[in-house]
Amino acid sequence: MQIVTLGREHLSGVAKIEQECFSQPWSEKALEILLSDNAVAVVAVLDGEAVAYAGMTLVLDEGQITNVATLPSYRRRGFSRAVLEELIARAEEKGISSIFLEARVSNVPALSLYESLGFCRIGMRRRFYSAPVEDAVLMELKI
């Protein structure tokens, strides 16, 4: 596995990950925001296929993780942890002091992963998600 910077050549693979993982996936066009100077995104590539990714937008010294996803057939193999660790390292290099994210309250595996990486629960966002409607846990990692 290699973890590489998200490039235009990865967008279709990342859009496939989105389709397989989320009820309201980002389109390939929407994912282009992660190619901007105000974003950081990485992709785990295995045998030429994008199998996981993580993206974050940047404002001043804060990062907002947009999505973290792994193809279902590759889950529980450390890919999400690997892309998150790389994303955090790159955020540090850019002088980011805090990273925020939201996760569904029912997504226990994701919440456990984030907490194992040092993210702390700092609040709730009521009815944040749709399809299905669900609250989100707001988390922060201070770097």
Sum up the structure in keywords.
7 strands; alpha+beta; 143 residues; single chain; 4 helices
Describe this structure in words.
With 143 residues, this protein is an alpha+beta fold. The chain has four helices and seven strands; from the N terminus they run E-H-H-E-E-E-H-E-H-E-E. Helix 3 links the parallel strand 4 and strand 5. The longest helix has 15 residues. The model has no long low-confidence stretch (mean pLDDT 97).
Give me the side-by-side strand order of the main sheet: 1-2-3-4-5-7-6
SSE order in H/E notation?
EHHEEEHEHEE
Determine Rg (CA atoms, Å): 14 Å
Count up the helices.
4
Q: Structural class, from secondary structure content?
A: alpha+beta
Mean pLDDT: 97
- Please count the beta strands (DSSP E, at least 2 residues each): 7
> How far apart, in Å, are the first and last alpha carbons?
26 Å
Helicity, as a percent range: 25-40%
Q: How many strands, which pairing sense, and closed or not: the largest β-sheet?
A: 7 strands, mixed
Give the DSSP E fraction (strand runs of 2 or more residues).
35-45%
Instruction: Please tell me what the overall shape is.
Output: globular
The residue ranges in which pLDDT falls below 50 over 5 or more consecutive positions are: none
